[in-house]
Design goal:
This protein is α/β, with parallel strands linked by helices. It is built from nine helices and 14 strands. 25% of the residues lie in helices and 17% in strands.
Length: 361
């Protein structure tokens, strides 16, 4: 991305000043060396929707959004890719903890373009603009986040805005997706228009999910859509359809029969549920990943404080060695290691947490 214009620098300087005053004392950073390694600990998957002027249902203010990024960084969290979570390949410096950043509904508030001197620039007041400026100030963070997309929703929620809504042109939708992928972010299915899958017939479920994948492929040909975020956190009546299926487009008169469009999700995001289990935990289930929703009435600080307390809900802390799985201190091991739901778990049972040396495969 090109250098930010002067107005963007002023905006972020003011926002940073406000954030400094907002970060609570409890968010103070603990020295990295003081964190005992625990690679069976919990991982927060945080979830944002609108990033706007004020807090409210499904929205946070821009100042709060930056404060939440700042708190995560101050407390030793580092964004990881969804692919690394699924593979159990979390390679972080010793004492650091993973966090997965997710954004739902693809609104212009998350990614807005502005025209400046004949070129498109990311609006510094959009979530992506705030995140990119934060990354520039914190080079120990890389561009890692998952954007769960709606290709055809109303109110501008169609690949981050269209038809002039909030100044966003329809022609900019596909370039936005290509920009995200080029930067290292990941794209996720969220159905075609935020459908209530629990009320939908199986045929409509398959259409919603297959056409969501088709729409992403039309912008970024060949892109592997690995995840689905369930709208409202609600499952279809046939749960297996959330994971895989196929839909055949209607045949056109005189044209060859169309081929079916297939989809397969390796991960399914819930809408809430708290921090997720480690991929090294035998009960880790990528097909039911809980998240930490952030909006009016919720508090990231409370979640991070709970993760800092010893016990079965303690945070994942890296030992700095990707070849081993560091176990938590005695008495703080995770509990409830039941078999993963639906046989879908990809945890320690098939990732190779050795009972003796704790080696990763």
């Amino acid at each position: 991305m090109s250098s930010p214009p002067r107005f963007a620098l002023r905006f972020h300087a003011l926002l940073s000043t406000l954030v400094t005053a907002l970060i609570p004392v409890s968010a103070a950073a603990q020295p990295v060396s003081a964190r005992a390694p625990n690679e069976l600990g919990r991982i927060p998957i945080v979830e944002w929707h609108l990033v706007a002027d004020t807090d409210g249902p499904y929205r946070v203010s821009r100042t709060r959004f930056l404060a939440e990024l700042t708190a995560l960084h101050a407390r030793g969290y580092v964004p990881i890719a969804l692919g690394d979570l699924l593979a159990g390949r979390i390679d972080l410096p010793a004492g650091k903890s993973p966090v997965l950043l997710t954004f739902d509904d693809s609104s212009p508030s998350q990614f807005r373009y502005l025209e400046r001197d004949g070129r498109l620039v990311v609006d510094s007041s959009s979530a992506l603009g705030i995140l990119e400026a934060f990354l520039a100030r914190h080079p120990d963070w890389s561009p890692r986040a998952v954007f769960c997309l709606l290709p055809a929703a109303d109110a501008g929620h169609a690949f981050f805005g269209d038809r002039g809504i909030e100044g966003q042109r329809t022609a900019w939708r596909h370039p936005k997706l290509r920009h995200l992928v080029a930067r290292g972010y990941e794209l996720c299915n969220h159905t075609l228009w935020h459908a209530r899958l629990d009320r939908s017939a199986p045929a409509l479920v398959r259409e919603q999910l297959a056409r969501g994948v088709m729409a992403i492929d039309s912008a970024v040909p060949g892109y592997p859509v690995r995840a689905l975020a369930l709208p409202y956190g609600l499952w279809p009546r046939e749960r297996a359809l959330a994971v895989s299926g196929a839909w055949t487009p209607p045949a056109r008169r005189g044209a060859p029969a169309p081929a079916p469009v297939r989809y397969r999700h390796e991960a399914v995001f819930l809408v809430a549920g708290g921090p997720a289990r480690s991929p090294h935990d035998p009960a880790f289930d990528p097909l039911a990943l809980p998240r930490v929703p952030l909006q009016g009435g919720t508090s990231l600080t409370r979640t991070l404080d709970a993760l800092d307390r010893p016990g079965p809900g303690a945070r994942y802390v890296s030992d700095g060695n990707p070849a081993t799985v560091a176990r938590p201190p005695v008495g703080h091991a995770p509990v409830g290691h039941a078999p993963a739901r639906g046989g879908a778990g990809r945890g320690a049972s098939d990732r190779g947490v050795s009972a003796s040396a704790g080696q990763k495969r």
